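User: Please predict the structure of the protein below. I'd like the answer in C-alpha cell form so I can feed it into my own downstream comparison script.

Assistant: Understood. Taking the following sequence of 474 residues as input:
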Amino acid sequence: MSQFNIEEEVITNNSNEFEREPVPNSKLKSWKSFLGMYAGEHAAGTEFMIGPLFLTVGVSAFDLIVGLFLGNLLAVLCWRYLTAHIAVKNRLTLYYQLEKICGKKLVVIYNLANGILFCFLAGSMITVSATAVGIPFNMEMPKLTDVMPNGTTWIMIVLLLGTLISIIAAKGYDTVSKAANYMSPIIVLAFLACGIVALNQLEVKSLSDFWNIWGNGSEPFPGQIKYTFWHVMIWSWFANSAMHIGMSDLSVFRYAKSEKSGWTTAAGMYIGHYMAWIAAALLYAVYLKTPEAQTFLSNGEAPPVAPGPLAYKAIGVFGIIAVILAGWTTANPTIYRAGLAFQAIIPKTSTFGVTILAGTIATIAGIFPAFAMKLLGFVALYGFILAPVGAIVVFDYYLSKKYSVIPFYAEKSKIGFNYPVLWAWGISFALFYFISVKFDIFLSFVTLPAWLSCGILFLFFSKRYQRKKSYQHV
C-alpha cells in the first residue's frame, strides 16, 4: 500500500524540484520509471498486516480473491484516467494546485491533517517491525484487541526502532530512499516465498484446495465486523484513495511523458495489494490451525496478528529480516513526508527539526498496538478524510468553466483562504461521517459519496461566492 517515497525518489533525481512551476519536457520520464516504483513500494510493511486482518473479518474465498481483483482494478483506473491525466496536463504538484485553488492559508489545514495521519501510519509500521525485533527476546506479542502496550520490552523496542528510523529519516533521506528501492525486490521475494511455504503447510494440491482455505467464510473474530464481497472490493479500491482520487500522486505523474504511465500502478496493485496480501493471509491461515490459535478461539479471544512470528515460522530468519525491512522502508519515508507537511505549517523550522517531531509522534503512536491492529479501519478513515480534497482539483479542472466558476480562483483573486473549499470539505466530511456512525455503515462505503459531495458543493459554493465578490468590486 505504501508509495510515500515515490515522489521524493522521482524528484531527488533532478537538480530542480519544480515545486512551483510545470515540469519541463527535458525532465520527463518513461513508463518504465514508474513501473519499478509502484511494483516495489506497494509490497511493504502494511501488507504484512492487511493480509492477515482480512481473515479476522471472516472473508470467503470469492470475497477475497475476486473482491481484491476488482477493487484493485478500480484503483488502477482512477490513477490512469483521473490522476495521471490531470498530472500530465498541468504538470504541477498537488500542493501547488491546491494553493492555486484554495489559497496558502487553507492548504495549511490540509497539511496538518496529512502530517498527523502520516505519523499514525508510520507508527503502525514501527509496530510491524517491532514484532520481528521482539522474537529473539521471546517478547509477548500484542493481541488483535490490544490498545495499550503489553509490557516494558515492547515499549523499549518500539522506542529504539522509532528513534533510529526518525534519525535516519531526518539525516539521510536520499540514501535511504535509494536503499529502499534496492530492498523492495527482497521484500517482494519474501512475500512470494511466504506464500509458497504456506501453501505447502496447508497441503494445497489443487485450485479447489486453495479455494477451500477460506471456503464460504466464517464469523468475524471478537471485536471485528463481518466483511462481505462489497467490503473487500470497496475497501481495496479506496485503500489508496488519498493517492488517486485524492490526487496526491499528481506530484508523481507530473513527470510522466504520457498519461498512459498511469497503467503502471497495476504493478503495485497486483504485486503488493493482491499477491502480497494473499500471501500474508496464507501465513495467518497456517497459524490459525495451530493449537495456540485454537486455544485463543476456544476461549472466545482473537488470536494475535503479529507479522514477525508469522514470517519467521514460514521462512526463518529471512522472514524476520523481511518484516523489519518492510516496516522500516515504509515508516522512514512516511515520517519524512509527515515532516514536510509540518514544515509547510512552520516554515522557519529546519527539515531536521520537523522530521524529528514527526518521528516522535510516530514512535509514540507505535507504542500503542491499536493503530496496527485496526489498520483496516485506519486506512479507511485516512482515505475518507483526504480523498475529498482531490475532488476539489478534479471538479475545478473538468467542470469549473462549464458552470461559470473561475478555475485557480485563489491565485487569480490573490486570496489566502478560499472559503467555498473549506465549506465543501467540512460539510461532506461531517455529513457522511455522521451517516457512517449513526447508521453503522462501513466508512469506505461513504468515501465515494463524500468525494462527489465535496466536488459538487465546491462548485455550488464557489459560484455563489465568486458572484458575490464580483458584485462587491463593481
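That's the full C-alpha cell string. The domain at 6-376 is CATH 1.10.4160.10 (Hydantoin permease).
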